[in-house]
Amino acid sequence: MQGTLEIRRLRADEQIPYNLLLLADETVEAIDRYISQSEIYILERDKHPVAVYALQALDGECIEIKNIAVAEKLQGQGIGRSLLRDATFRATRGGYQSLIIGTGDVLTRQLILYQKEGFEIFDVRRDFFIDNYPAPIYENGIQLRDMVMLKKSLR
Ligand code: ACO
Question: Is the pLDDT of residue 80 over 80?
Fold first, then answer.
């Protein structure tokens, strides 16, 4: 992907890009638990969103990336990393002290990317994917159980 990426906030009158958000979360119901309280940021190609992330403030000090996704065809080209840097920039500018993100315990690629971008594991939410979703979720043949929480200090 060439040049600087223009990532912008989705306006309230625009459609929520569920097709992208569903790459990172299993069900619309799960997304709807956070999306109306989140700021949504998108990257577009030919006026269509091709990447998204959603930021939700937990309190005055901490803000969470609730969802981050890149269209399948464009994955592996550095866009995910750019979204994480954009989120870091906005969270820092917003005066937050830490940025957090959670991911499934078996999602190695995501865990590597987040740690390369300065996030550190600080908690594991046991049985999160069993307690919060109606059906078992499998990734690479392994059942998702726990949510690994990572934090990046912005100070
Ligand atoms: N295989 C293994 N690791 C890879 C691959 C690959 N094919 N592609 C990227 N990576 C890893 C590497 O560590 C890479 O770093 P490097 O360039 O130094 O090797 C790093 O990821 C950065 O890759 P990007 O190209 O920036 O990542 P991408 O644009 O693909 O975005 C994302 C990453 C958002 C996870 C994307 O792959 C995606 O949308 N996946 C499906 C949805 C998802 O799982 N979202 C996260 C769920 S958690 C949450 O939403 C809070």
Answer: yes
| pTM strictly above 0.90 | yes
pLDDT one-digit tens code per residue, 13-36: 999 999 999 999 999 999 999 999
How far apart (Å, rounded) are the C-alpha atoms in residues 139 and 24?
12
Atom of ligand 1 nearest to the CA of 82: 26
Atom of ligand 1 nearest to the CA of 103: 48
Residue nearest to atom 42 of ligand 1 (CA): 24
Task: Give the C-alpha distances (Å, rounded to integers) separating 13 from 9, 10, 16, 96, 109.
Answer: 12, 8, 9, 27, 34
Phi, psi for residue 21 in degrees, rounded to 5: -60, -30
On whether the CB atoms of residues 140 and 34 are closer than 8 A, the answer is no
